[in-house]
Amino acid sequence: MLNPPNSQPMPESMTEATVSAPTAAAVPRARLAGARVLVVGDVMLDRYWFGDVNRISPEAPVPVVHVQKQEDRLGGAANVARNAVALGAQAGLLCVVGHDEPGERIITLLDESGVVPHLERDPDLLTTIKLRVLSRQQQLLRVDFENTPAHEVLLASLARFDELLPAHDVILMSDYAKGGLTHVTKMIAKAHAAGKPVLVDPKGDDWERYRGATLITPNRAELREVVGQWKSEEDLTARVTKLRAELEFKALLLTRSEEGMTLFSDDGILHASAVAREVYDVSGAGDTVIATLAVMLGAGLSLVDAVALANRAAGIVVGKLGTATVNYDELFL
Ligand SMILES: Nc1ncnc2c1ncn2[C@@H]1O[C@H](COP(=O)(O)OP(=O)(O)OP(=O)(O)O)[C@@H](O)[C@H]1O
Ligand SMILES: [Mg+2]
């Protein structure tokens, strides 16, 4: 199952490891129900406006959309937490929202989702919202609102983290570079001191701030930004090994879209091939991957078993339109 660190170029000639995931008997529902995941990070609201276009505006050469329907979905860290709950685990969400309409909407959707909200409110914050305007299945425009939470609010969030830490088994940092994880280095150190694993979905090129994380889960572009373009699998392994040593990451899981995922740890390298039968919607697959990993580690599974299940979950979620979550039955039965 484990490939030696200096294996052949991948994916063509690398021995494809058949990663066998544990069965439902080995991972009963009750075991997942006991897993307590704390998600910390940037929440956002994904909003969709659907309408018809029948004319061009008299004001400028742009289409006029007559909006007929609005749909809202939890995004970012909230989507990650929702994925943990869908698997049957307990998830708390620590984040900052504003006193605005998108903030209220996020609170309502969280209430419906079963995620336990631990929200800091910032009256001056524009809650992150990504508004898409669509007509006939085509996206015409995306409009983003966001700014950075205030210093005091972020400090309050750090204090809240201290209170929440003892009641959780695993900590998950969902970074979308909106400022919610300003104090991530301190949070990782505190979790480490408390003996709790910390999983990080990174953003940006400064990974020093994630120092000491148990597991970091970049996609290809995110890793490339930090270690540069690799020329072969051997070169990739060398770059990742150096990075892990420098920043004290216990493990790194590279998600590689259609090429599946590769785990780098002290035990060697494990590659899991993508298992999707059909691919409809790949957005949010990364959220499902890290949520599944956190739930399984929180339930006491090994990292290798957690990766096998996360890979299976990713294969399921990319085959779905709409709901970007996977439930227990879909994963095990
Ligand atoms: N086109 C695809 N075909 C098969 N499997 C896929 C595909 N895209 C994604 N996956 C599965 O989903 C996992 C995560 O996808 P990816 O590496 O694209 O993460 P990501 O870029 O973080 O996703 P996100 O859009 O959520 O940010 C992959 O490791 C793979 O298992
Ligand atoms: Mg991602």
Would you summarize the structure shown here?
This protein is α/β, with parallel strands linked by helices and 333 residues long.
Task: Walk me through this protein's architecture.
- It is built from ten helices and 13 strands.
- By secondary structure, it is an alpha/beta fold.
- Strands 5-4-1-8-9-10-11-12-13 form a nine-stranded mixed beta sheet, with helices on both faces. The protein has a four-stranded mixed beta sheet with strand order 3-2-6-7.
- Helix 5 links the parallel strand 8 (170-174) and strand 9 (198-201).
- Helix 2 crosses helix 8 and helix 8 packs antiparallel against helix 9.
- The longest helix is centred in the last third of the chain and has 15 residues, at 233-247.
- The two termini are 23 Å apart.
- The relative contact order is 0.16.
- Bound molecules: adenosine-5'-triphosphate and magnesium ion.
Please state how the strands of the largest beta sheet are arranged side by side.
5-4-1-8-9-10-11-12-13
The CATH architecture comes to 3-Layer(aba) Sandwich
CATH class: Alpha Beta
Instruction: Report the sheet-strand fraction.
Output: 25-35%
User: Major sheet, described briefly?
Assistant: 9 strands, mixed
SSE order, one letter for each helix or strand: HEEEHEHEEEHEHEEHHEEEHHH
The helix-and-strand class reads alpha/beta
User: What is the chains' assembly state?
Assistant: single chain
What is the number of beta strands? 13
The fourth-level CATH homologous superfamily is Ribokinase
Q: What would you report as the Rg, rounded to the nearest angstrom?
A: 20 Å
Organism: Paraburkholderia phenazinium
Pfam families: PfkB
Domain Carbohydrate kinase PfkB: 36-325
GO molecular function: heptose 7-phosphate kinase activity; heptose-1-phosphate adenylyltransferase activity; phosphotransferase activity, alcohol group as acceptor
